[in-house]
Design a protein that fits this description.
- This protein is an alpha+beta fold.
- 51% of the residues lie in helices and 20% in strands.
- The chain has a three-stranded mixed sheet with strand order 2-1-3.
- Helix 2 links the parallel strand 1 and strand 2.
- The chain starts with a helix and ends with a strand.
């Protein structure tokens, strides 16, 4: 989304300014589809952010990706609103 892109645009400089920082990118999905499909979809989502960060000069050695697939789907419930919240990437900078 445009809002997600704007948020990501600020991230590379934040990480570059802090050379000790490590980035974890989490790919999440809703519960639609098989578990295997959702894990791969979560990997693709995380991989898109990984590609962006590395293209902006963040070394891969500082980035970890993980796919949670639909593991959190049961927590938020069912329905389109819950599904929309589940389809996301979470980026953590430590």
């Amino acid at each position: 989304t445009p809002a997600a892109r704007r948020a990501l645009e600020k991230l590379p400089q934040r990480v570059i300014r802090n050379p000790q920082a490590k980035v974890t990118i989490e790919g999440h999905t809703d519960a639609v589809g098989s578990a295997g499909y959702n894990v791969k979809l979560g990997e693709r989502r995380a991989g898109s952010v990984l590609a962006y960060l590395t293209s902006e000069g963040i070394p891969m050695a500082r980035i970890t990706t993980v796919s949670f697939g639909a593991e959190a789907a049961e927590v938020l419930g069912a329905g389109e609103r819950a599904s929309a919240l589940l389809r996301r990437v979470v980026v953590r900078v430590d």
